[in-house]
Design a protein that fits this description.
Mean pLDDT: 87
Number of domains: 1
CATH topology: Immunoglobulin-like
Distance between the termini: 32 Å
Strand content: 35-45%
Order of helices and strands: HEEEEEEEEHEEHH
Helix content: 10-25%
CATH superfamily: Invasion associated locus B (IalB) protein
Length: 159
């Protein structure tokens, strides 16, 4: 149920390349997402990363990675920051246009992302061929520690 909050917020945003933070109130919860979206020329989200913090009636922190469909689900999504140890994140949902993997977000992961230069996100297609996507961590700390975008700033960034 709570993962839907973060996924819902991510899905409602138009494609934006780069790190940014958006916050909203949904029911009795304050939700902030620090997000990165890599978007293809046709507008399809190639990879999206979200660090969601939900506070209020529900308190939860999650790290989510969204990739297109046609993925080999048992393989999960591999995530590696710079040359650090690779971690596998299990898929939790698939929708008609994307599949999402998710783990609990903790301070160690946030610190790793803040100190890193790039994150490699690798999903495997249905033929078990890896599809690595490099995500820059440039701008992550500023987005994570900074104020969320206001609606007019978000609209301007999406143009």
């Amino acid at each position: 149920m709570t993962a839907g909050f973060a996924g819902q917020s991510l899905a409602q945003q138009a494609p934006v390349n780069g790190w940014y933070k958006v916050c909203s109130k949904q029911e009795d919860n304050d939700i902030c997402n620090v997000q990165f979206q890599s978007v293809a020329g046709n507008g399809q989200v190639v990879t999206a990363v979200s660090l969601a913090e939900i506070k209020g009636k529900i308190n939860r922190r999650v790290f989510q990675v969204t990739v297109p469909t046609g993925r080999l689900l048992p393989a999960g999504i591999k995530v590696q920051v710079d040359d650090k140890k690779e971690a596998t994140i299990p898929y939790v949902y698939c929708f008609p246009q994307s599949c999402m993997a998710e783990v609990q977000l903790d301070d160690n992961l946030v610190a790793l992302l803040k100190s890193g230069g790039k994150m490699t996100v690798t999903s495997s297609n249905y033929q078990n061929k890896p599809n690595p996507v490099e995500v820059t961590l440039n701008g992550f700390s500023a987005a994570y520690d900074g104020a969320p975008l206001k609606q007019d700033e978000l609209v301007a960034k999406q143009r």
